[in-house]
Amino acid sequence: MKESVTHPMIDIATLTKRYYTIAEVSEMFDVAKSLLRYWEGEFKEIQPRKDRGGVRRYTIKDVENINKIYDLVKVRGFTIDGARKELTGGRSTNKKKKVKLRLEKVLSRLKALREQI
Questions:
Q1: CATH number, domain at 84?
Q2: In 3D, which of 86, 92, 95 has the Cα closest to residue 43?
Q3: pTM score, two decimals?
């Protein structure tokens, strides 16, 4: 049975610094630094800046995206691929395709009616 994970509930409004180190972010979420580096490679939404020494600097937007990813993967149990699709709106893509097909059918019918006139 899967162990229940509680979300560390990061209130983005309380973040006051412009940049956070990987150590600070890993402490916020109580995860290993290596997990953050892994997620950085898996999710285009996380793109910390790196200084000349290669030290990562996470913006508030990065922390916000990590918060979403943490919720999807650790709390809700999504796979990495599933979380990626959820973040990029993969579920709404099918709806858009269906709507587009319906609109194309309507347009086709309208053109046929126009030709009859």
A1: 1.10.1660.10
A2: 86
A3: 0.70
Domain that holds residue 52: 12-89
- What's the CA gap between 115 and 117, in Å, rounded? 5
Query: Which contiguous run of DSSP H or E holds residue 111?
Result: helix 90-116
**Tokens read off for 68:** 């979403």
pLDDT at 32 over 70: yes
pLDDT digits (tens, 9 = 90+) for 60-83: 999 999 999 999 999 999 999 999
What are the Cα distances from residue 97, in Å, to 77, 85, 93, 108, 111? Answer: 27, 16, 6, 16, 21
Q: Are 60 and 15 in contact (CB under 8 A)?
A: yes
Q: How confident is the model at residue 25 (pLDDT cuts 50, 70, 90)?
A: very high
